[in-house]
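Before a computer can learn anything about folding, someone has to put a protein's shape into writing. The outcome of that step, for a single protein, is printed below:
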Amino acid sequence: MKYKGKQILYHAIIVTTLIIIALVLTGCTSTSSEQSTPTITEDTTIGSEKTNIIGTETVQPVIYKESNAPKYNHGDVVSRSSGSGAIIGWLIVEYNPETDCYTTVQVSREIVGGVYTDNWIYFEWVPETFNRKLEERDKPFIIGHADPKTITTPTLPPPTPKPKYQLGDIVGRARGESTGMLIYWISPDEDRYQVGIVYYRNSKWVKTDDQNFFFSGCMGGCVCSEIEEKYPVILSPKGSRSYLVYGL
């Protein structure tokens, strides 16, 4: 009887232990099945252009667009360099929104007593038109301001008169002369003639020798108007070309 009683007790302990284990396992399974799903939060703020995903911040790139509005105004003097050392500038005369172009004229600081001032005068008075964006990149500095209507126009020297004679003309004081001046070089920009002495011999114009050919009173060139006044007659138009080429 004692043996059977102990056997029943052992069985009861084993069954109780199995029940407890079963209950524990059942609780663990239920707990594991109730795991929380991570929350995904999105913050799409347009102003900041940021998107937050589970704590990771992604910043969208910002694209800078060139301004479509003109940077310069009528009367601005712009330059490639800044500061008082900028002597030459470009005056904004006009902006055309249809073509997106500036019209400019080149100006310079006025010199008074050997010192550059803040007053502007025309340096190059021919208006030029440039694309707005290119002009703003090429000349990024505003160095002054001037009213195009009141800006001083420089006094221009009188235009150089066009030479009366052509290369190769033989000129003299009066018709029928046997001694003439050969125009063998002309510089219209410098308003100068180079002349040589020639003689009419045997129905043609010749020079005696190089020493007597070059006119000593005109070394370095004579002013055109002086030669034209002193020798007003063309004795032989373009009659000297062969003499110049062959040295006759």
